Amino acid sequence: MSFQSTFYRSLIYFHAFIAIAEFVLTFTLIITVLHNPELFFKITGPDDEDWELIAEGYRIAIWILFLIGTIRTVIMLAFVFLIIFSISTCLCLSCLLCCREQTASFFTAKSTHRCLSFNCNCPCYRARPTLRFQLKFAYSVIMLCVRVATIVICLTIRHHVTAKSLAIIIGMSFFFLILACLLDYYHYRVWWHYKPQFTDIGFFFEMPTTPLSRKHKRYIPYHLLGDHRTESFGDKTCSAGADCKNRQLEHIFIFHFRGYNPQRRYFDIIRADNPKNLYIGFHQTDPASAVLIAHSDFRISTGPRSTMLGHGIYFARSREGTENKANRRGAFICAEINMGRVLRIRSRERFVYSGKKTWWRKHDTAYYCHPDPKFDEFCVKSPDQILRWIIVIEKRFDRKVENYGLDTEFDDTKCGCF
After folding, report:
1. What residue spans define the domains of the chain?
2. If I label 381, which of 71, 126, 163, 244 is the partner at 20 to 30 A Cα–Cα?
3. Which keywords are on file for this protein (predicted)?
4. Going by C-beta distance under 8 Å and a sequence separation of 6 or more, which residues neighbour residue 218?
């Protein structure tokens, strides 16, 4: 197991450590300031530590904002008192020995650490990594604003030593907030800016050193595919089913099954409903070729045995539709394509253009209408027609999901979200 995978698997413990460190520092400094008001500032007059001279509205605002801004510390304090109370009730040694294993499992459980660090594991995040990061970022921004407001109010009370000391303590807590944000961003990057760790891709294959193509949107980890939705609350496939109008490539892969056709047959679509003449296509190839595509572009097929509709780049209407057509396997590509001028090819005409490119002069795409609509396929003559794509590498060629524990990250969730 690599350092990166170990680091990722330890994220929840880092979050818990940050929460505990923030609690220890904040609680220690507050107790110290209460016993030694001159910890940060010198007392120059008898009124410098008299709370009675501060307006009641200011006092209420300071303590309310302080409690909100340090809510994690407050919960941690309650947790510590709960532990002390629980231990104090176990007066005999036999009780302590009897509960030792349960106590140890409670303190080492990831769900406990999530609760203490405010790191929710809601099932709706399983297929929505962006939503998790957006909510965590919004929480961090709110905490930042509350703490800044508390500091401003404390500093407006110019001559009160304790209030100004409280502002210093809150200012120190920004360090922990920033650390938590960085961990959240890293977590988001692992899921939504995914990079596979290839295995069995080929002995002589070398990873490209060129940057990713601008058309390449992202890799999607295989466990996010719609076939892996649990259909439980927050982790269901698209409720619209076959009537779904969402054409985002990520939505198509994540919230629909392998047999889903995002659009009707090309010639059944009303032109007014598709003014840009765009169509969603699926392509299957081997992982090595998929990597080369991600770093460059699609390549035109010219082999006589693999070009039933002529020279070009072949696509099906669904992932399932690629199974009996692809010459190579292991990677699925979902692409948005500008169809241009389309030649309709019927069943009796399917071998007329085999191994040729005669239709290129007047058309941009050849669309074969199979007797069974789900087996339709089409061929585009130029990579320029392919506007963008996303790629999924199958499980047997990508070990990152298992190494990082992405597929089991939600298995130990307790109480629905911790």
Report:
1. 3-193, 216-258+266-404
2. 244
3. Membrane, Transmembrane, Transmembrane helix
4. 192, 193, 194, 250, 390, 391
